[in-house]
Amino acid sequence: MAATLVFAYTGHDAAGKSVKGRVDALTSGQVAARLNAQGIAPLSIVEAAPATGMRRSINIPGFSRGVRLKDLAILSRQFATMITAGLSLLRALRILTEQTESKPLAAVLALVRDDVEAGQAISESLAKHPLAFPPIMINMVRAGETGGFLDAALNSIAENFEKEVKLRGTIKSAMTYPVVVLSMSVVAVMVMLIFIVPIFQDMFAGLGGALPLPTQMLVSMSHSMVYVVPIGLVLGIAFALWWRRNKNTDRVRRALDPLRLKVPVFGPLQTKIAVARFSRNFANMLGAGVPILQALKIVGETSGNWAIENALIQVAEGVRRGQSVSEPLQEFPIFPAMVTQMIAVGEDAGTLELMLDKIADFYDQEVHTATEQLTAMIEPLLIAFLGVVIGGMVIALYLPIFSIASMIK
């Protein structure tokens, strides 16, 4: 089979606007046929040399910016609007490729557009890029494509991603203040131990006499910073690299994900987030016409927690044996009784999708309330922690001065 080549082209579109770009094809004639099908009159088509030297894009592993969920939400909403307005898939993809502000997404969309232009289904092309497009998006597009309601499926995807972005924003805004304050306190303690304590130590050495026990402990900690800081940085970088590579492996997820749901204070919040995500994704998959067994599998993969993914695998096995969704779901304490009861009512009444939407909305509000309460609880605890740590260090530094003053009297 002949290898495809990269051709660079320039031409004019139907409005007379100058356009240029690159296309993968076997021959220049194939490129010309594609351009004519898009309404572009080609002026020149030449084989492009591979980018070298300074023209080659540089991608550093771990530091390249991927496709964000917010970009996918905007893409889905705009794509649905264009399909509803009667634009062809190729023209819609071309406009989206040119208009999106995300360079990684634009690069992937250009590949998708070429595949669609070559006669491939859009869902098949999206499935080639699992790092850019999540499974729920690929399967809902496939269902909409098969059933002839692609615009409705894209609108459902957009609503799903928009709510997920809002949920993530709520959690991020609630945790920003505690993380910043805690980071500043760690930096302040390290600055005092590295720079301030040695100054007081030299002053105390000139005065003579034995230092109080708290001051001795502070001086010892200051000396240890010479070793602790470099070792801590090396271990921190090593752990970050290991975590980035192994955090999604089954062995790590099987060990850590159930623990996340049991951590005091944060565990219930994680559970509510997981239930909200499960309900919303499940509702959207059913609304798009995805078969229930396939929907359970995909929802499990996109849940973000191994415990829920494992539970849904067993729920799918129960459904395959003829049980309803709510029956095996009741065996897992991850899902609150209210959730399983509402799902059972929805199954009996034939309104499962509606019930799942109601559950998702309820738990979205629960997450919002829980994050506000968590922030209100963490703030005074952080202030007390800072007062104890910084105040204790200051007192330990001034204890020798108080001792000398009492001796002088």
Question: What's the topology here?
Answer:
Layout lengths: L4 E8 L5 E8 L2 H10 L3 E7 L21 H16 L4 H11 L3 H15 L4 H6 L7 H13 L2 H58 L5 H34 L3 H11 L5 H22 L4 H10 L4 H15 L5 H4 L7 H13 L2 H57 L1
Antiparallel strand pairs: 1-2, 1-3
Portion of residues in helices?
A: over 70%
Outline type: extended
Supply the helix-strand structural class: mainly alpha
Number of strands: 3
The percent range for strand residues is 5-15%
Distance between the termini: 98 Å
> Uncertain regions: pLDDT < 50 for 5+ in a row?
51-65
Q: Write the element-wise H/E pattern from the N-terminal end onward.
A: EEHEHHHHHHHHHHHHHH
Radius of gyration: 30 Å
What does this structure look like?
With 409 residues, the protein is mainly α. It has helices at residues 28-37, 69-84, 89-99, 103-117, 122-127, 135-147, 150-207, 213-246, 250-260, 266-287, 292-301, 306-320, 326-329, 337-349, 352-408; strands at residues 5-12, 18-25, 41-47. The relative contact order is 0.08. A three-stranded antiparallel sheet has the order 2-1-3, covered by helices on one side. The model is unreliable at 51-65 (pLDDT under 50). Helix content is 72%, strand content 6%. Helix 2 (69-84) runs antiparallel to helix 7 (150-207) and helix 7 (150-207) runs antiparallel to helix 10 (266-287).
